[in-house]
Amino acid sequence: MDKENKVMKKDILPNEHIPSLEYDLFKDLLTNQNDEGSVGNSLEFWDNIPKFFLTPNAQKELRTPSGHANPFEYEYTSNLKNSQKKNYKIVIQPAQIKQEDGKFKSFFPYIAEQNIEEILKKIFVTQSFGFHDVQENFSWVKFSLSMIKRELKEMKCQRNYSQIKHSLEIMSLCIITLYEGNEKIYSESLLSSYVGVTRKEYLEDTSAMHSVRLSTFVSYAVNNGKYRQFNLSYYMGLKNGISRFLYKKFVERFTYASLTTEYNFSYEDIKKNSGHLLKDDKKNRRIIVAALELFVKSGVLYKYKIRAEQKHNKIIGVTYIVVAADEFIRNQKTANKRNLLRNEIAEKNQLSFLQ
Hints:
Elements: H1 2-12, H2 21-27, E1 39-43, H3 56-62, E2 72-78, E3 86-93, E4 95-98, E5 104-107, H4 111-126, E6 130-133, E7 138-143, H5 145-154, H6 161-173, E8 175-180, E9 183-189, E10 192-195, H7 199-204, E11 210-213, H8 216-224, E12 227-231, H9 232-237, H10 241-253, E13 263-266, H11 267-273, H12 281-297, E14 301-311, E15 314-324, H13 326-348
C-alpha cells in the first residue's frame, strides 16, 4: 500500500520545471539586499475576495452544539482598478475536522490560514520549489513544515507544527465558491490537491516534501500580469483584519502616492466589501480610525482626514482622505518601476496579457 501511495503521489505532482516568461516575471521582484525576502506579490483579483474574515468568536456562533456549521455566504462588490464594479457572492464551506473525541467540528479560514497562504506564495516565488504551467493554468508549490515554520517566525507570526498542520487541513478541506451575479464562476478548495507527507515517509526520506496546487486565480494572475509588488513583511505584521484589508487597498489603488496626492475611500465601501466590520457603525468607525492611526505611526500614511456627512444630526456617510508617508511612497514607486520593466519585457516578447 505504501508503494502504491508513492506511485500515486509521483503521478499527481509535476516532476520538472516548465520554463515560462510569465512565471519568471512573477518571480522577478525589484529589491535591494535589505529588502530581499520582505516583499511579495499582491494578487489583484484573488486577494480582493473576502475569505479570511470569520473570527474564532464568529465561527463559534455559527456552530451548532454538535460542532457543525453551515456554509457561510457573503455578498460584496469588487471594484478593481480600470474595471467596472461587479457584484459577487462568496460561499465558504467550512472544513470538517475530526477531533480527539471522534466527533467532527467545522472550521472556517482566518488570519492563521491567510498567513500560511502568503508564505506559500512566497515560497512559490523566492525558492526553487514552484512549478507553473501557462498552458494548463496550474501552479504547484513544494514545501516542508519546517520551511513554513521558519518563514512565519521571520515574519513574527510564530506557529508550532501542530498549528501549521491544522491550518493546512482547514485550507485543503475548506471550499470556496464564487458567484458573479447569479452565475457560479469558481469552486475550489483554498489549497487544491494537497499531497502531504506522513511521519513514516519523512523518517524514510527526510527530504520528502508536501505539495499543493495553488488556486486557479493565482495561476490566472501569473499568466495575465494581474499582480503588484508590496511590502509583505509589513503586511504580515498587521494583526487586525481591517488593517490588512486597507493596506492591500492602498497598495492596489494608491499607486500614484506622493506627498501632494490624496486617496479617498468611503466607510460604506469598507463595510460592504471587507467582511471584517460589525453591525455597530460607531464601533466600526473607531476600528477604521485605529487602523489609520497605526498607519501614521508605522510610516504608511503621513496624515488622514475624515469627512462626515450628516442629516438631522445623524451621520449618513463618511469619507476618509489619506496622504501617504515617505516609506510607502518609495515602495509604490518601486512597484511602479517593476511593473514598467515587466511590461516592457512582456511587450517585447508579445505576451498575451498586454494585448
